[in-house]
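Anyone? Bumping this.
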Amino acid sequence: MLTPVPHEFAIGGVYFPPLLIAAFVGILAALVTTRLLNRYRLTKYFFYPPLVSLALMIIYTVLIGTFIVGA
Amino acid sequence: MTIAYGISLSQDWDRPYWAGFAVAMVSLASIGQSMNKAALRMFGTLVAVVVALTFLALFAQDRWAFILTVSVYAGFCCYMMSGSKHAYFWQVSCFVVLVICLDAGPDPVNAFNTAVLRAQQTGLGILVYSLLAIFLWPSRSVSAFNAAATELARTQNQFYQACLGLAHGQGDVPEVLRLSAILVQAKTRFDQLLDAAEIDSTEVWELRLSWRRYQQQEMELMQALERWRESLAEVEARHLLRLLPNLDTFGAELDGRLAQIVQMLDDHAPDRMLQIQELAFDKDALRSLPHFDRATVVVARSNMLQLEQLTRSLFETVSELKGYGTTSATPDPPPPLQSLFLPDLDRLANVIRYMAIIWMSWLGLIYVNDLPGGAGLVSFAGSLGIAIANMPQLSVSKLVAPATGSVLFAGILYIFLMPTLSSFIGLGLMIFAVTFAITYLYSEPQQMLGRALGLAMFVTIASISNEQSYNFLSVANTAMMFPLIFLVYATTAYLPWSPRPERRFVRLLGRYFRSSEFLMLTTRWDPARPATRLESWKKAFHAREVATLPAKLGSWAPHLDNWALSSTSMEQVQTLVTSLQLLSYRMERLLGERDKPQAPFLVQQLLEDIRAWRIGIQTTLQRLAAGPAAGEQELLRERLEQTLDKLEARIKEAVDKTPDAQYSERDAESFYRLLAAYRGVSTALVEYVDNAAAIDWVPWHEERFV
């Protein structure tokens, strides 16, 4: 499977590193996921939610960076 | 702020924004409040300069010893900040040490210049603000202070009247509780304004000793009124009216005194002076009551006699303050000195979090290349972190919006407006307009954080200097610094405990009952074995815990969210906290009565029964320490009733077979007080268990994302 080539993002003439964009989107995605898990009371099945939250942020960042953004 | 910048730039001093910071932070509603804060900022800065230069001189060559020493000092300031009257002094002292050390650490040759410049710019900012505040817009706090003093006395009078209604069996308990809360607010406002009025008013300054005495007496009267109110919950009004025949006249005299105090504070001469009042006691009628009822009446009467003494002292002090009487003949005894150091666990928890903030940002600075902000990240994280660590109830997510807004606002000014300015007139107008807009839009006290962040961001990002340069990277770096700082704050929020309000609440409840259990254990009779120093220290520590934890629980209660309160109302939680406060008062009373001597004969007769009672209470407290809803209310109530009936019979039997010569009237009164104290603790415990049973605790223990 082909993954996107790493490249910088130019927003308003300012270049942003791809990992920064991936991390930003990854954190947002993790926050949305944790809010949804909270809302449906599924969090009670986790032993220690803070670590799960951190793990989700890292997983999303890596996935988005590898397959979407190309970090 | 404009003038402070103007002077600093005209003298070609480096970093004029430090003067701007000083102006922005000391500006408050009145001269007195501002001067008070300005003095604390100046002294804090001077102390920090000495401390920072000492650290730099000693440890400049060893970064680990250096940061260890700096972080230990920062932790010490953090601990002192939350328990001190001069919290701002400690806060300033801490963050100025961080700013100087991190600024001068990589460049120790200029350390002295940096430290002196910081003190100089702070002094300039304070001087400019002071002169303008005094000569241009003098807003003194004396009128607000006088109004606050009258309001406090009036609320106290209303609270007394409401409690008197309870004594007559006509009172309204929710109204009494509402007035009690208003009284606390009025007292807090009075305390704040007294500090300010002492500084900006000569008349208050000259009478400051009398005002401080008045403040102390007000506090004692508030506590006595609370004790009286809670003792009225146990006694039946009909017994009081029958046993205290002149209760009406006595109550009216105290009411009259409090009304006269309000009148004098309102600058009107009193209509009448103090009148001597005795609170008569029908001893024959007292003997016709069961022993436990006798005990409650004795306690209520002694509380009223204490109120008589306190209102008398207060009346005399106010007469002297307002020039309607002579100096009180009997000076107040000096307050007892607290010789034991009693650590506060919550303050220690704040210290752990704060030191973790400093270490995390410091390690990031060392081991991560090109961290946005560089050394500034550590000093910024530390400067804001000391306030964050001392407000554990504040969620980090609440900081995101004001910080983002501030960075955007300051960034727009820096990028689009500032490059078009070519003279100080334009720059000065911009500084004036921005400062005015921020302080106007965030003028409410609860918006203080937004105001401070807005001004701090403007001053930092604008970085005004004589050799002004513009670089988009400085805004971008500052903007990037915040997610990192918030990440550090969010991570350290789990140190040492979970930041979830419901978890903290349950943890505090556990601590409360463990301390209560320990205190109950100390009430056992063992006159042959005096307490060791360690035991006395532990007792003092747990007594302080029991006295302060209900207020701490009250501060966490409003932060409970819908998760914990899905099937519980906020009123139920508040009622639970109120019942704990009641239990604290009664524990305190029990400890006080327990320390007084008792008639040996009565003690011998009832030792076993009271011991069994104490062990019963201890067992319940132990169970509650393990889980806040572990008490079985019906069982507890039944057991209490059985104990009271059994003890009533035992006391009657003991008293009947005791010759009158074996104990005096004073012994009997002392014994009744002790009996009432034991019963008070038991009934307060039953009330707590009732309230705890009404709360659904299951969601409080469920895991969730914060």
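Late reply, but here is one note on the structure posted above: The CA atoms of residues 356 and 492 of chain B lie 6 Å apart.
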